[in-house]
Design a protein that fits this description.
Order of helices and strands: HHHEEEEHEEEEHEEEH
Number of helices: 6
Number of domains: 1
CATH architecture: Alpha-Beta Complex
Distance between the termini: 15 Å
Oligomer: single chain
Helix content: 25-40%
Number of strands: 11
Largest sheet: 8 strands, mixed
Shape: globular
Length: 213
């Protein structure tokens, strides 16, 4: 399964991506079009969408952020972070951050492509999701300053979702809003992470439909 998944994604990511169509379903404020000025001034960030086999099934790794005084406190996210001056490109950013946060061995990751960038207005980051594979179940070693918990998600739990669920979330300002979410491993996943996951769900649906049929 992991070989056919990697082959499928390697080819699919070279073609036109669903991008804004998929993003619009999961965007918390339903805004997906941003000005050239906003995007030009955005800070660059890379996250790793890592596929691996666990108990004979394809999984991806998410993390839960610790509670802190900040915009993304306690949220479920992909391993990743802002681009540093020493990073040669955004791929290196994603790999370096994943290594620092959850101990992924950089040399073991086969990068096969990228998903569509996601702009986060509240923190002014433009996030590039980098897609990679390892051929074993990683031994996650967390940086407790950055990560409260590793969330290992079975891929079929994402692809079987027919429609996102609306849930009420509380912002760090105290305001409560209703947003589209994924409910995974008893976690509410929303915001930029849900936007990225939804594009992945769109991309993988044809593959999983062919397997099921």
């Amino acid at each position: 399964m992991i070989i056919s998944l990697k082959t499928y994604l390697s080819e699919r990511l070279k073609k036109e991506l669903p991008g804004k169509i998929a993003h619009s379903e999961a965007a918390p404020y339903r805004k997906i079009n941003f000005s050239e000025k906003e995007l030009a001034e955005a800070r660059k960030s890379g996250v790793l969408v890592l596929f691996y086999i666990k108990e004979e099934d394809p999984h991806i790794v998410l993390i839960q952020r610790p509670k802190y005084e900040g915009t993304h406190s306690g949220q479920v996210a992909f391993p990743g972070g802002k681009q540093e001056k020493g990073d040669k490109d955004i791929i290196q950013t994603a790999l370096r951050e994943a290594n620092e946060e959850v101990g992924i061995v950089i040399d073991d990751i086969e990068v096969i492509g990228q998903l569509t960038d996601v702009y986060i207005p509240v923190s002014k980051f433009n996030v590039t999701p980098v897609v990679g594979f390892v051929n074993y179940t990683p031994n996650f070693i967390i940086d407790e300053r950055e990560v409260a918990e590793v969330v290992s998600v079975k891929l079929s739990d994402i692809t079987k979702i027919k429609k996102l669920t609306l849930n009420e979330v509380k912002l760090n300002t105290g305001l409560k809003i209703e947003v589209p979410t994924f409910e995974l491993n008893n976690k509410i996943v929303w915001g930029a992470t849900a936007v990225i996951l939804n594009e992945l769900r769109w991309i993988l649906r044809p593959l999983y439909k062919s397997i099921i049929s």
